[in-house]
Design brief:
The chain is mainly alpha-helical. It is built from ten helices and six strands. The strands form two sheets. Strands 1-2-3 form a three-stranded mixed β-sheet. Strands 4-5-6 form a three-stranded mixed β-sheet, with no helix packed on it.
Length: 191
């Protein structure tokens, strides 16, 4: 593992189950562990943190950037087995009053950070989920068309829903991206 180039090592690491990841991390030096851990997405960090001793897990989380620490602890805050533990908190959103061009500009700015860009969540200023707009519709629209005119009714699940039920719901609804909301209907991530 130590002889692999960094990018390839991360690919290999992500394929291991969480217990194997934890064992490998125990054998690596602190600097290597921090590099691998920080390169993971928040939803990939959580199962690994569940396998590690609390002192090691706390040290790794504290070593993250402030943004990554916030995203990871948000996912950690949901009960084991809940869809909130598997969602990605990195979501591209648009506002209903934006034009299609403004929404596309936002997608471009967040392209490297977002989990998925195939469906854009439409939220109000408090992050309440109002609808969704497929990227295809944004691309097809004239630049001045309003997002509100393009959005569809959202299909979403609560973050506390059992992950298996959420996966079945996603398959039954035939959606690529499933918004995840909190108890007040605010967008917290996507599955």
């Amino acid at each position: 593992y130590r002889t692999l180039p960094k990018g390839r090592a991360l690919e290999v690491f992500e394929r291991f189950d969480a217990p194997v990841q934890a064992d490998l991390l125990a054998r690596l030096q602190d600097v290597q562990v921090a590099e691998v851990f920080s390169a993971l997405s928040p939803e990939d960090r959580v199962p690994l943190l569940d396998e590690l001793p609390a002192t090691v897990a706390n040290r790794l989380v504290l070593g993250l950037s402030e943004e990554d620490r916030m995203l990871t602890t948000a996912v950690l805050g949901y009960p084991r087995g809940a869809v909130g533990r598997y969602m990605s908190p990195r979501v591209v959103t648009a506002r209903p009053g934006m034009t299609a061009q403004e929404a596309l500009d936002r997608v471009r700015k967040q392209l490297d950070d977002a989990e998925s860009i195939y469906v854009i969540a439409v939220t109000d200023s408090s992050r309440h989920l109002l609808g969704v707009v497929p990227l295809r519709d944004l691309l097809r629209a004239g630049g001045t068309e309003q997002v509100a005119d393009l959005m569809q009714a959202p299909v979403s699940v609560p973050a506390t829903l059992n992950a298996e039920e959420a996966a079945r719901y996603c398959a039954d609804a035939k959606v690529l991206v499933l918004p995840v909301v909190d108890a007040e209907g605010r967008l917290v991530g996507v599955l």
